[in-house]
């Protein structure tokens, strides 16, 4: 199905791959998009074939042509050997970790990791006898001091959820290679386009495809992309855990992928413009956006990443909760809710002091995470400006 099979005479650029991967109109009656295969039962023509499982598809839970098309497309764009799509980003994380650990093992996980990843480690993994040590996301090559004889993997996420620390992935990869540890990365922020994990020593890259790949806030989906060394273990673990994304969701992931380059480019430009505008506002103490020169790890970001998506955080000057509520409750365009990566702008307050263990979180005022959607930035600025005015009025009263 992959376009690479018939157009491999020259290397295609990422935006072109997004449009042409995972489909082959000549084999689908000329229709541009592959059909959506729905199904559980797959028939075998002979008992001999059934005994040997001798055909490409054997049961709906294992795979369908729809699933395979999306897997091929993501693997090609992210640059891995194989992709396994899952029902959610969270499921992609749990399967990827399960693939490499057993009872008695130890793992290293970033202190700035997506909170549910931490919950998975602290509850399910701990119950199964796998111990987690959280590390400072700025640790770099010093992560070697935390490696034990039973350490199996390092789970990174860069930039960190909510707090946006950029990790020195190549330095961490050097330690992982030296001690034969698996290196996993939650690459959702950058999407498969703006960080190329396999060029930086990562073994397994995780996408919450729910975010930028689906891109329209209308489906849940995850993707685990691996290098050759890790691919078989991931495929096996996915099969053993029965991860089986629905046909519609898989199709929506494929549909989202087609426009990913265009959307991300817009998220990037609007996100940066909003970040710069916020940086100049008196209400804002700091903007945590890796592409701003003021970001403490801006140099690492500029060295390793190919772009910035539309998600970042701001720290406000100290303000009472009622004033913050007056700002947030009256917003007309920014919605308040979890997830991100869709066409619409979002904002949520957050507080890392409640869960960090390896590092402490220092901020005087409230923290807000923003996702800049595809609206006109002038309208978004006006929405926040009115919010800041409500905040000031409420703080005075
Ligand atoms: C949302 C998110 C996930 C989980 O994805 P779901 O599809 O919501 O399960 C994982 N990692 C990061 C960084 C996320 O933002």
Name some characteristics of this structure:
14 helices; seven-stranded mixed β-sheet; globular; 2 domains; Aspartate Aminotransferase, domain 2; binds pyridoxal-5'-phosphate
Classify the secondary structure makeup into a structural class.
alpha/beta
> How much is the average pLDDT?
95
CATH-level-2 architecture of the largest domain = 3-Layer(aba) Sandwich
Radius of gyration: 22 Å
Top-tier CATH class of the largest domain: Alpha Beta
| Low-pLDDT segments, ≥5 res | 1-7
Can you offer a commentary on this structure?
With 397 residues, the chain is α/β, with parallel strands linked by helices. The chain folds into two domains: 3-258, Aspartate Aminotransferase, domain 2, CATH 3.40.640; 260-396, Aspartate Aminotransferase, domain 1, CATH 3.90.1150.10. Helices cover 38% and strands 14% of the residues. The protein contains 14 helices and eleven strands. The protein has helices at residues 4-7, 14-20, 47-52, 65-78, 89-98, 115-127, 169-178, 191-194, 228-241, 247-258, 260-279, 298-304, 321-329, 377-396, and strands at residues 82-86, 106-110, 131-135, 151-157, 182-186, 204-207, 222-226, 284-288, 311-316, 346-350, 367-371. The strands form two sheets. Strands 1-7-6-5-4-2-3 form a seven-stranded mixed β-sheet, with helices on both faces. A four-stranded antiparallel β-sheet has the order 8-9-11-10, with helices on one face. It is globular and about 80 Å long. The N and C termini lie far apart (64 Å). Residues 88-90, 114, 157, 161, 186, 188, 208, 210-211, 220, 222, 339 line the site of pyridoxal-5'-phosphate.
């Amino acid at each position: 199905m992959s376009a690479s099979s018939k157009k491999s005479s020259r290397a295609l650029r990422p935006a072109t791959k997004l449009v042409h991967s995972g489909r082959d109109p000549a084999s689908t009656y000329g229709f541009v998009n592959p059909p959506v295969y729905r199904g559980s039962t797959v028939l075998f023509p002979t008992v001999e074939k059934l005994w040997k499982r001798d055909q490409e598809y054997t049961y709906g839970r294992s795979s369908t042509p729809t699933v395979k098309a999306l897997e091929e497309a993501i693997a090609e764009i992210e640059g891995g050997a194989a992709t396994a799509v899952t029902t959610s980003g969270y499921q992609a994380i749990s399967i990827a970790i399960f693939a490499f650990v057993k009872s008695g093992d130890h793992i290293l996980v970033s202190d700035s990791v997506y909170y549910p990843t931490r919950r998975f480690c602290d509850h399910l993994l701990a119950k199964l006898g796998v111990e987690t040590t959280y590390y400072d996301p700025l640790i770099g090559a010093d992560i070697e001091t935390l490696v034990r004889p039973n350490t199996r993997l390092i789970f990174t996420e860069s930039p960190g959820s909510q707090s946006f620390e950029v990790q020195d992935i190549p330095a961490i990869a050097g330690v992982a290679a030296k001690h034969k540890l698996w290196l996993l990365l939650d690459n959702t922020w950058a999407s498969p386009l703006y960080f190329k994990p396999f060029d930086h020593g990562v073994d397994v890259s995780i996408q919450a495809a729910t975010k930028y790949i689906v891109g329209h806030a209308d489906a849940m989906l995850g993707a685990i992309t691996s290098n050759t060394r890790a691919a078989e273990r991931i495929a096996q673990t996915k099969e053993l855990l029965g991860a089986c994304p629905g046909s519609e969701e898989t199709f929506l992931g494929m549909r989202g992928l087609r426009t990913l380059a265009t959307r991300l480019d817009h998220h990037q430009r609007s996100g940066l413009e909003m970040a710069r505008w916020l940086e100049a506002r008196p209400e804002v103490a700091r903007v945590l956006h890796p592409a701003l020169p003021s970001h403490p790890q801006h140099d690492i970001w500029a060295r390793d990443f190919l772009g910035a998506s539309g998600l970042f955080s701001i720290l406000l000057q100290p303000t009472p909760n009622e004033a913050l509520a007056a700002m947030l409750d009256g917003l007309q365009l920014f919605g308040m809710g979890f997830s991100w990566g869709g066409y619409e702008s979002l904002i949520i307050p957050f507080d890392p002091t409640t869960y960090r263990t390896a590092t402490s979180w220092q901020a005087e005022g409230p923290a807000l995470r923003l996702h800049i959607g595809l609206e006109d930035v002038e309208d978004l600025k006006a929405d926040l400006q009115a919010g800041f005015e409500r905040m000031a009025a409420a703080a005075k009263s």
